[in-house]
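Re: [help] complex structure
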Amino acid sequence: MDKHSLVIIGGGPAGMAAAVEAKKSGIDDIVIYERDTQLGGILNQCIHNGFGLHTFKEELTGPEYAGRFIGQTEALGIHYETGSMVLSISSDKKVTVVSREKGLRVVEADAVILAMGCRERPRGALNIPGMRPQGIYTAGTAQKMVNCEGWVPGKEVVILGSGDIGLIMARRMTLEGAHVKLVAELMPYSGGLKRNIVQCLDDYNIPLKLSHTVVDIKGKRRLEGVTITEVGKNGAPIPGTEEYYSCDTLLLSCGLIPENELSSNAGITINNTTNGPVVDDRLETNIDGIFACGNVLHVHDLVDFVSEESGRAGRNAAEYIKNGGRKENSAKCINVTPGNGVRYTVPSVIDTANLTENIHLRFRVRDVYKGCSIEVKTGSETLLCRKKKIMVPSEMEDVILKKELLSASGDITVSITEGGA
Amino acid sequence: MTRNMICIGCPMGCDLTVETENGAAVSVSGNSCPIGKKYAETEVSAPTRMVTSTAKAENGTPVPVKTKVPVPKDKIFEVAAAIKAAKVTLPVSIGDIIVEDAAGTGVCIVATKDIKA
Amino acid sequence: MDNKIFDAVVIGAGVVGCACARELMRYDLSVAVVERESDVCEGTSKANSAIIHAGFDAVPGTLKARFNVQGNKMMDDISRKLDIPFKRCGAMVVCLDENDIPKLQTIYDRGIANGVEGLKIITGDEARALEPSLSNNICAALYSPTSGIVCPFEMTIAYAENACENGAEFFFRNEVRSIRKDGDIYTVETTSETFRTKMVINCAGVYSDDVHAMIEKPDFEITARKGEYLLLDKSAGGLTKATIFQVPTKMGKGVLVSPTVHGNLIVGPTAEDIESKEDVATTKDGLDTIRRVAALSVSDIPYNKVITSFTGVRATSSTGDFIIRNTDGFIDAAGIESPGLSSAPAIAQYVAELVCAELHPQKNGGFKEERRGIPKLAHLSFEERKALIDERPDYGQIVCRCEQISEGEILDAIRRPLGATTLDGVKRRVRAGMGRCQAGFCSPRVIELLANELGIPQWEVKKNG
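Output below.
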């Protein structure tokens, strides 16, 4: 059986950043398994700009951002295998992988980093009634068709969901000559970044209807049109507000789901809110030596944060391997609980006895909060309080907790409070 | 005159307030950094945008490209058409010039991905 | 079709039509199957509960009772010979109200009269011991060990492939426009061909009354009855081991909850008579009804794991029974609603007998009754899978990540006789796109493979039709 120190599953931004940092931390025997024909993951189809301001201090397109990491991966001599799909992982870190070139095999690893990314929520999961004709795609699938395959899947377009991919595709389809009639969003706020509303919708006079959804789909073979209605506060359609839009294409940008079937089957505990593994501050799952980072852990808005997080996973995995897989015995773990207004936190466990780095605590809020504060408390003691002008569910928040603060701390809670410091 | 806008300079999306006189910005507030100030000043006088799209290689492969720098906003569709009209010979590397002067903007179109022949 | 005279023209390439064609190939007969769609399994056969019923629902003495019980008994053999997945997972009819317990007894008695084996009535607690997810409302249940689950796509496709392999000719995109009889010969005109044949076999599903009307005013009427379903991810597939029915009402068998033979969970159907035979839209009311009614029998169905919803139409006959008979060389296999899938093997055998009684053909000595399906790499043992990939490296290139379907399997689906020409065709043959992402990731690649194989541009590849 082949054996590697570190097996990284996924060669997108998460996997590459993890590999680069692990290598820099002294691990030589690394392999990245990538199911696509090239490294880069979903960035290859994200040809728009807006990536890299944090990481490279300049604005890059997706392929350029990926290119930087591909360059580093290759320069560091990190071994990767494309066209290679991991079929299963066992709890003792045996990885079954298949490819055209090398066939089916089992590879043993000292440590594994999960970096499989996420998938889009399909129409069926959205409970949209109606017919099932050709012309209904998730925004990312359409993006792949336009940007990687070179053909445009329709001419008259309605987009449901204002996630960033949907907004980006509204502009992209427009530039390719399609008429984007409308972006409808179920929630009373957009699911994407404000800048994308401006530069993808407003610039092209594409209307965004908040608190609206699709309630019917017409067309037997090809999509003919959709019925949009306004929804009330409870999310239920308001009778009498139906409007019919003829269209041949409906794009769905209604959320992303971390892809953790491999993880679950390996026995990794999944957080029901993030749909990603439960991890500690080292980004290690409940299985020793299996780490997770990037969109498989929780869905990010910015690839820069994916790279940062994944770099940490790489360093921690390297540490784990160098320690011979042994965890320190003195582990003293505290829980991080999402409090008022906070949906989840990553990590949700911190091993305060073995802190090597400050803690990057990332989380999402439940609602739109204006003029509120992020408060991190242990018992009644406030560890950190930060005022924010605005927080929205579509933008990930993060706070850095100094490791000195935590060394003597008990369980902590992260909440949103009115007013504050 | 006062104009409100959202900065597109980075993902933060700051709400900007711009005081203008004769179409030029005299003061900008709400920005968190110099990018915001510059964006507001350009946006009220001569707005510009980056354009990203795909050109086609001779074998049909899409080649992702961008304008090297932002182009006037009212030229976006002309620039997009110029990209569509280009025929790219593979291989290309990131930064290779695909179109020298897109739609008379003086801005060149560059490849954003390494693609083998 | 020049001057060729077929022995039989089968109208409709659903499970009944394809099964009939295959059974006819056991004899020295020339058979054409005409189908209005571009593929087999495009009507009722593609959207149903995928259940092989035991046969306790139908009234004793009906064709439904006879062919259901007979068809059920044939399934193990068919599954082996045609290489299709079939599992006797058992079924329970659960009773939600003490007052309905006599109804369970009626069903039991009917089952016994129909010749169903192994039936027993159990208490609510016994039922819950077998199926822990059953709701506490359940006071008694009828347990039926011979009920099973099957893949209706594969069953139809396997019948069609085997028929084709044995010489049956398939004509797609041929919608029948008229039928007339001159002397002993029928002339069947479709949208693109004219067929001359000694016999016509009407397997036109919800349109079987319309097809019958082309030759004479039918003495029956077909109503399209719509049934909506929810399909859940495989991670929810183990919620029940058996198919859970509710004590039937006038409108049908109620809402069932069942594992599918591929390991998903299916919940449905609704039952609504509709005007248009083409109305396969799901509705908010329908999907809500499924959730509400299913909750009566099974607790905590994880609806956040729904991956798709769909609607099927069933051909409900005004006679209440299947209509299978030969009138002057024109055979109806009409009104084949539930338990149609379960009955199809037996119906086909019976239709073949009717044809033989008329044409007295010789046995077809060269009939090959076994068909090998496309290998299902994801279900093979490690060694078997490895060996196959070593032989055919494209079986190692995964295209559909959710169902782990390889490029090789997809190419097989396209290249086989009666191969797939659409995304849905690929999906039904090898399940690429059938998983939790619902083709989000694999469809661009499957489209590319279809385009290459069919020699058309990618944008001309269709989802269906």
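Chain A touches chain C through 46 residues (CB under 8 Å).
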